[in-house]
# Entry
Amino acid sequence: MALFLSLLILIIPKSALAVEASVLGIGGGSSEEAVSEPVPDAFGRDSPRHTVQGFISALGDNDYLLASNYLNLSKSENPTTVVRQFKQALDAGGRFQSELQINNTLEGNLTDQLPPSQEKVGSIKINDKDVPLLLERVVAKDGEQYWQFSRETLNSIPEVIEDTKPTLISRYTLDGFEDKKLFGYQITDLIAAVAITIGSFVLTYILVWLWYHLLNIIYPRLRREPLGLPDKVILPLSVVIMALMLSEIMVYFGVSVTLREPVNRFTEIASWLALTWLLLRVIDAIFTRAVNLSYKKNYTERVSILGLLRKIVKALLLIFAIIVIFGNLGFDLTTGIAALGVGGLALALGAQKTIENLVGSVVVVADSPVRIGDYCKFGTYEGTVVDIGIRSSRVRTLNRTIVTVPNGDFSSMQIENFTSRDMFHFLHYLYIKRNADIDVVFKMVEALNKFLDTHKLTNQEWNQANISELRQDCYVIQLRAYVNAVDATEFYGKQDTLLIDVLSLVNKYDVEHALPTQQLIMEQNEHIDVQKNAIEEVIENDDIEEFKTEDDFENLNNDSRVDLSKEPTHTAESPNPTETNNKKSIMGREFKYIKQGFRFPKMKNHKSH
# Structure
């Protein structure tokens, strides 16, 4: 709604709004009084800027009668003659101010040193004579007000053109091209303007290139450090210098004012673009140098602040450049800025999340829970902070991916900063079997405690070795210490050394490390055990014969069955259990071999007896 109202303010004429206000009884005046508004001028002379633009446009069309309406002429003067003389003086040395410097209101600039009815818009400089280009506000009999070139300026023109000489372009113009036009301009002026622009740029670029490389040689010898400016500033700096000189060069060569003014407008836009480009390069160079100095002096907390300031300065510079460029293109900045003020509220209401992220970025930089280059853990992610932007922050994870987190969420998270720790925690456990002598275990714990306290890699913050837990199968010995290290890589190297020294110390005592074990219980089919015993008996008696059929093998199995309900008894003649196990192992392999040699068909399923 706010945007819609702002558009209505721009579209609906002020007179209509005034009438509506009078009908509603708003505005402090009587509802019966009519609000008087100035009638728009038919020639567009309602402001100094429009007067200058209309006059140059009429000169470009060679409509001298139309151009005479922008001059405050007396009835006795010939309009065509005065306009022609005025154009001759402007071509020879006329210089108008840039459009942004010329006031665009009916009242004009009331803060200058001139009367309220006068406005200076430029000057004419020929030899040692300098004539100001003044506009004066004329009030007609019917109350209409408009701006015209003043009588004071017009009276000085005949005296100025007495000393004028033919311009360089008019001297070397061929007779066949004097009256030829292209796009409404003289061909000679167009060719001269293009040649002057290209030549000025090439010459300026060469000079700036030589200056930069000369400075790049001299500066390191004088300051003992490399030049902070990159070579990328050569091109924008050349464009800026060329744009500043181009207007004077065209005046020197005598390019017509009708072409010179549009070219000046173009060069002003180009100069602002180039200046913005140059300032962006300079800002990058300044902040890069500041970041390097911060790292060099170990002021890493400044890096995030400098990164955010760089982006804010760049954004403000771009906004300012866009406003100036649109002003040069003829847009009314006053009305536009007022509309932005009304629409800005609507934008703020619709972009709450963006504003929240912007505030979050300020909080992250000001509070500094993390800085660029810090390794941190937030939410379900952890990684190294690579950038803190205006809207979001980027973190590179251990998988080398980039996680982008809005600063509004990032500032409200619980962030664990690993880089900010002053020391690393060494915490490990030893598991010793319970069959160890308790006195030996106590002596070993005391030795480990003294070892951690006196080791060269540990500090005096907290060094301790103690029995932390008694389990059914082991003693749990806790080793705790703190190690000074710059980063995780250095800590892991020192931790390896500590662990090796700890294991070397433990090996000096009569203890065993408790390792995780598993017990596997296997049950065999009793029928298979009886068959193996029968085969073993056959093997021991060397009574092995080739079975031709499956019945022979079954008879062997039937003959070898025993009553499993009876518990076997051992006699003195019974073999040693160890030997029995070895025989069973051999028997298993032989049984497999004998079974393969039976060569009878595949056995079918049969009922057990």
